[in-house]
Amino acid sequence: MKNILILGATSDMAQAIAKKYAAEGWSLTLAALEKELLEPIASDLAVRSGVEIHTLEFDATDFSNHRKLYETLSTKPDIVIAAFGYMSDQDQVRTDLEDIRRTIDINFTGMASVLSVVAEDFEKRGSGAIAAISSVAGDRGRQSNYIYGSAKAGLSTFLAGLRNRLAKKGVHVMTVKPGFARTKMTENMELPEALTASPEQIAEAIFQGLKKKRNVVYTLWMWQFIMLIIKHIPEAIFKKMKM
Known about the structure:
The chain is an alpha/beta fold. It contains 9 helices and 9 strands. It has helices at 12-23, 35-49, 66-71, 90-93, 97-125, 146-166, 199-211, 222-231, 235-238, and strands spanning 3-7, 27-32, 53-57, 79-82, 129-133, 172-177, 180-181, 196-197, 216-218.
């Protein structure tokens, strides 16, 4: 039975991804900082799907422990999906150095750290797939979320380089850009319904994207064109816009 490791498995997106892969008969390894929250999630999935599920504690910012944690896995995964992330209020984060550091450590450094360990294993095995949730916020810096966006921009560039490195080794790397998503992280934000994806839509997009070996997936197709337009607005005009 093939195994998938989901990092940040307590998030809404991650739970939807876990349900999708469990329904497809994959065994699961669920990892998150709040391990106690994983148990009821794992139990429910096991009852519903009948697949084998393991849980473990994972701290994205405990960089020195990432290799040890991965090496202790009794079953090495065929797919790793990194679904953890952190976003605080832009007005708060821009004046709080610790919050800036937390934003970068979780969204970029933590991702780069743990996925580098995974990449090393997959490269040696000559197989495997990696998917990480980045963001359209990283496609162009905007005043509304440029600190979060800069961390996601770094992640997208990291994944692009990793994809370039591992393609010839039989390992696939996919960047996921959900656009607006209906999750706990955004529950206090007013989001346009037509441009907002559900966790289930994101899970399906990731499943199909990995199956088809897509390089970059925008969960709702229109986001690719929206960001294409935004990226091509001349800077002289863009810097005066309220975005």
